[in-house]
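Reopening this ticket.

The earlier resolution said the output was attached, but the attachment link was broken on my side. Pasting everything inline this time so it's all in one place.
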Amino acid sequence: VQLVESGGGLVQPGGSLKLSCAVSGSIFSVNSMGWYRQSPGQQRVLAAAIISNGYRNYADSVKGRFTISGDFANNTVYLQMNSLKPDDTAVYYCNAVVRTQQDSIGYDYWGQGTQVTVSA
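Inline output:
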């Protein structure tokens, strides 16, 4: 299973970015997809996640500014980030819980990470 992210970069405070992540491989089903972020010296934490039934979960710090959307037919997840702040600066990692053709349960898979820098 491979997760390929795109869309990171440098943006000014108050600006917007959209991250994309495509999940591919020997997939039986994708149970959930999400975005985690990690700042230097900090633990990796959840930013937003979406389950295949449509339920969405957001960290309090991004509620009202970030929107996660998922296309479970094509195994793609997006994160629209608006009103970005310097505190949003981090490496953003795509995550998916995937059941492969060989497994009876789902396992966590991770992308390589994409840098988001919010700075004037």
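Reporter confirms the inline version is readable. The CA atoms of residues 89 and 108 lie 24 Å apart. The longest strand covers residues 27-38.
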